[in-house]
C-alpha cells in the first residue's frame, strides 16, 4: 500500500471519529440552529442544478483550504468539528440525540463521497510536507477532489427529490468504482513522473552500488567457494552448504551480468540457468539447479555429497560461458 493511501485512510478515520464525537456533544445554541435553517432554506429554494452548484461550490472551497500544506489538517479538524456541532445543535432543537442524526447521515450515499474527498485533500497537502520531493503526487491526487465533490453534490441534491434516498446508492457505487480507478491512474502517473525526474547522477550511483562488475562477482564466488571448502574440511557441513550456495549465487549473478540479464529475483536466476542450459545444450541443467536448491532450502545435510556434485556440474557449465 502506498504511503499516501495509508495517510488518506488514517485521516479519513480521524475525520469520521471527530465528526461523531462533535455531533455527540449536546449543543444548546440557537444561533447555530438559525444558521443551519438559513443555509437549508437557501438550498431548498434552488433548482436541482442550482442545488448542485451551491453545494459543490461550498464543499470544494473547504476542500481546497484543507489541502493547504501544514495548516490543512487544522482547517479540516475545525471544519469537521464545526459541522458536527451544528448538527448537534439542530438535533437538540428537535429533541433528537445528535449522535443518532450523525449516524443516520452516515448511512446516506453522499456522505461516503463527500467525507473521503476532504481526507484526500488534507492528505495530499500533508504528503507534500512529508515528502516534498514528491510534491507532484500530492498535486495529481488533488485532481480527484473536485470530481468526487461534484459527484457527491449530484447525489446529495438528488436526495431532496426522491422518497427513498437510499436508492441513490445505485448511482453511488459506480461512482466509487470510477473514483478508485481514477485514483490508481493518477498514482501511476505520479510514479512515472517521479521516476523520470530522478537525477541521472543519482541513478548512476545506485546502479554502481547495486550492480558490481562481472569480475567483482567472480571474486566473491571464489571467496565463498574457498570458505565453503574450509568448513567442509572442518566437518561443518551446514556452513559449508551455506557458503557453497552463496558461491553459486555469485556465479549465476556474474553470468547474468555477462549476458545482460537481471538477477535480482529467484525467477531472474532461473532464467539465467535456462539460458545457459540452452547455450551449452544440456536441458537437464535447470533440473540439477532446482534439485540443489531444494536440498539447500530443506537443509538436507545427509544429501551434502549429492548437493556438492550438483553444484560442481553447475559451476562447470556456468564457467564455460
From TrEMBL:
Transmembrane intervals: 7-26, 111-130, 135-154, 166-186
Taxonomy, superkingdom: Archaea
UniProt keyword annotations, A-Z: Membrane, Transmembrane, Transmembrane helix
Keyword Magnesium part of the UniProt annotation: no
Name used for this protein in its record: Integral membrane protein
Amino acid at each position: 500500500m502506498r504511503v499516501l493511501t495509508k495517510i488518506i485512510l488514517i485521516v479519513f478515520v480521524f475525520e469520521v471519529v471527530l465528526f461523531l464525537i462533535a455531533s455527540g456533544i449536546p449543543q444548546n445554541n440557537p444561533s447555530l440552529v438559525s444558521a443551519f435553517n438559513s443555509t437549508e432554506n437557501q438550498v431548498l429554494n434552488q433548482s436541482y442544478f442550482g442545488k448542485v452548484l451551491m453545494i459543490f461550490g461550498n464543499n470544494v472551497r473547504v476542500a481546497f483550504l484543507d489541502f493547504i500544506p501544514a495548516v490543512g489538517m487544522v482547517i479540516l479538524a475545525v471544519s469537521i468539528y464545526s459541522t458536527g456541532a451544528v448538527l448537534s445543535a439542530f438535533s437538540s432543537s428537535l429533541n433528537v440525540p445528535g449522535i443518532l442524526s450523525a449516524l443516520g447521515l452516515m448511512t446516506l450515499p453522499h456522505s461516503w463521497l463527500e467525507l473521503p474527498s476532504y481526507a484526500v485533500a488534507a492528505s495530499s497537502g500533508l504528503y507534500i510536507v512529508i515528502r516534498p520531493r514528491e510534491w507532484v503526487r500530492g498535486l495529481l491526487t488533488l485532481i480527484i477532489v473536485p470530481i468526487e465533490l461534484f459527484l457527491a453534490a449530484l447525489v446529495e441534491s438528488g436526495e431532496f427529490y426522491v422518497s427513498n434516498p437510499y436508492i441513490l446508492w445505485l448511482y453511488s457505487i459506480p461512482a466509487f468504482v470510477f473514483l478508485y480507478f481514477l485514483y490508481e491512474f493518477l498514482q501511476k502517473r505520479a510514479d512515472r513522473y517521479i521516476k523520470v525526474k530522478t537525477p541521472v547522477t543519482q541513478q548512476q550511483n545506485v546502479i554502481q552500488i547495486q550492480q558490481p562488475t562481472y569480475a567483482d562477482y567472480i571474486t566473491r564466488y571464489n571467496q565463498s567457494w574457498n570458505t565453503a571448502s574450509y568448513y567442509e574440511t572442518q566437518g561443518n557441513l551446514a556452513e559449508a552448504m551455506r557458503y557453497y550456495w552463496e558461491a553459486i549465487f555469485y556465479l549465476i549473478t556474474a553470468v547474468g551480468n555477462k549476458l545482460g540479464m537481471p538477477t535480482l529475483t529467484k525467477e531472474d536466476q532461473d532464467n539465467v540457468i535456462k539460458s545457459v542450459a540452452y547455450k551449452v545444450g544440456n536441458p537437464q541443467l535447470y533440473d540439477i539447479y532446482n534439485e540443489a536448491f531444494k536440498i539447500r532450502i530443506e537443509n538436507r545435510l545427509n544429501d551434502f555429497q549429492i548437493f556438492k556434485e550438483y553444484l560442481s556440474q553447475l559451476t562447470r557449465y556456468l564457467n564455460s560461458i
